[in-house]
Amino acid sequence: MRNFDFAPLYRSAIGFDRLAQLFDDAQRSDTASNYPPYNIELIAEDKYAITMAVAGFSREELEIESERDTLKVVGRRHKDESQKNYLHRGIAARDFEHRFRLADHVKVVGARLDNGLLHIELVREIPEAYKPRRILIDGDNLQLVEAQHAA
After folding, report:
1. The SHSP domain covers which part of the protein (predicted)?
2. Average pLDDT, the chain
3. Does residue 114 contact residue 51 with C-beta atoms inside 8 Å?
4. Contact present, 51 and 38 (Cβ < 8 Å)
């Protein structure tokens, strides 16, 4: 495992102190289970989709929770009381919990279960206050001067 020096980044960037934590989380998740398999897709500039293969899970056995910067998907199978005698068991029947780290202003807008695939739709909605805006130099004084000339 390799350690990264973030000192140069901290000299010129403000508010990226969580970056080291994100890298640590990513390295830890490399050793985590890849069950169930999933895809993350960029649909448009600010639209994303996560598709998870959850064959055998019903809607009641799946839970999606979004809190702050984390999306959690949990699958808990109801215990099958009947004793089945499998000759081969290739379909996984285990519970899972998977967490996704969400960037700022990304939120879940919908989810659906279709043919054993769980589709989760996400969108980044940047508030007006965070969108770029032009700042006039001495703008307030200029407006005051223009108002005095008009009078």
Report:
1. 29-140
2. 79
3. no
4. yes
- 97 and 139 housed in the same domain: yes
Strands of the 47-53 sheet, one edge to the other: 38-44, 47-53, 117-124, 106-114
Residues 5 and 48 in one domain: no
- Please choose, from the candidates 81, 71, 64, 65, the residue with its C-alpha nearest in 3D space to the C-alpha of residue 118: 64
82, 142: one domain: yes
| Residue-range definition of the domain harbouring residue 64 | 39-150
Q: Helices in 30-118 by DSSP H: which ranges?
A: none
Residue with token string 């979004």: 66
CB atoms within 10 A of CB 71: 20
Dihedral sign, CA of 22, 109, 38, 65? positive
CA-nearest of 121, 118, 120 to 75 is 118
Q: Is residue 91 scored above 50 in pLDDT?
A: yes
Provide the pLDDT confidence category of residue 90 given band limits of 50, 70 and 90.
Answer: confident
62 shares its domain with 109 = yes
Same domain flag for 46 and 11: no
What are 11-28's pLDDT values in tens digits?
555 555 555 566 666 656
